[in-house]
Amino acid sequence: MQAGSSPSAAQQQVRSSPASSTEKCGACGPGFASPLDAMKGPREEIVYVPCIYRNTGRKKPDFLATVDVNPKSLHYCQVIHRLPMPNLGDELHHSGWNACSSCFGDATKKRNRLILPSFISSRIYVVDVGTDLRAPRLFKVVNSEDVFWKCNLGYPHTSHCLGSGEIMISTLGDPAGNGKGGFILLDGETFEIKGNWEKGDKIPPMGYDFWYQPRHNVLISTEWGIPKCLGYGFDPNDLKKGRYGRRINVWDWTSHTYVQAIDVGEDAAPLEIRFLHNPAAAEGYVGCTISSAIHRFYKTEQGDWAAEKVIQVPSKKVEGWLLPDMPGFITDILISLDDRFLYFSNWLHGDIRQYDISDTRKPKLVGQVFVGGSITKGGPVTVCRDEELQSQPDPFFIKGKKVPGGPQMIQLSLDGKRLYVTTSLYSAWDRQFYPDLIKDGSVMLQLDVDTEQGGLTVNESFLVDFGKEPDGPCLAHEIRYPGGDCTSDIWV
Questions:
Q1: Rounded to an integer, what is the distance from CA 18 to the centroid of its chain?
Q2: Do residues 180 and 203 make contact, with C-beta atoms less than 8 angstroms apart?
Q3: Is the distance from CB of 381 to CB of 325 less than 8 angstroms?
Q4: Of 28, 62, 377, 378, whose CB count within 10 A is highest?
Q5: Model pTM score
């Protein structure tokens, strides 16, 4: 694919099946035949959200919350079930599935187990959601010792199901907390560790997120930083010392070997990476946190891969903060299933943005809303120079509650009309940047999306307040739909 080309929704439509096949997709295996079929899927009624107590001062285990998001339900915006983990201090973070749309067409596969890697303890929990969708139960625990001894890895992060039926989990480091961008491979039936996915001697110095696309024989991974450095908080003294990531790393999908590094800038800290959903597309985007930039990556005419910066969120000159320049801190990104819109959150500045990516090389800002952050009026931070705003945004209140923290994890409804948001990044960084998050707990919000012209509006009737949990305020993180979503499913 040339740098300027991108598959349109019309091109995607060629692979889209009739609505009847969407309705019957359960008989064809998990997920949907195509991204556009997924957009015709059912409206979300419940979501799963990992909730964290580590670093809150409350000696309670992390838990998986089941949240009712059906506006017709009597329990709308309520946590209807809690599954506590059997250990303290895990730091649940992201989640994935035992099977997804990459297995579509295989009637022997079912999406019935949620994979929950623990970022700090390195345990991997397997949760049964098939027996009772609304009341998940623990199915298996993969102990950290198995991760350490069988893979020489630790700090697991992103979990993706593979078309083979196996489960692949990226890691940030080795058991000692040094940087190491490897992958754990789990058996999709027994959930036993099969070993490392990667082969050969070359391994990236850091890891974090990943996405794969077999049609282009590629997997691309990202880098946050060295676990033993970032684990206790953000220290500016770690900058310019090679302790934060600067590369997106290209792997040969067939041979499992590391073949190319693409530099996106010193201390950029590239986190979440998303290919376009159309499996024919050889391009996508990565969000860089500390540098607050979005880079488009793409396959070149020569067959290797390259990246170009397409969005830069300007830092703000500030007083009363850790540094004189405050970055936006892009912590999560996603792409709508029709590959039309890109969304991302600026955790420090406090805004969520929507870009039209019809021209993938020239994203156009079409929606923006502030829902908290570090630069609100009346707070400790004074903005001295701002290239984007005329004045500091007002504090964000919803249903009488002042929302602590800033927008972080995001999840889009299948039809693209609702964007869900949580406000916790990682407990040690929450405690450092947003102490009120520890005291008051995080929240889940919902934005209404204009899918015609673009635009974001807060749904003022939607609030899930994790500050009111029975065991005390907690930190809610990633959002996952039982039937799959635009950050869990990969079409091959």
A1: 30
A2: yes
A3: no
A4: 62
A5: 0.94
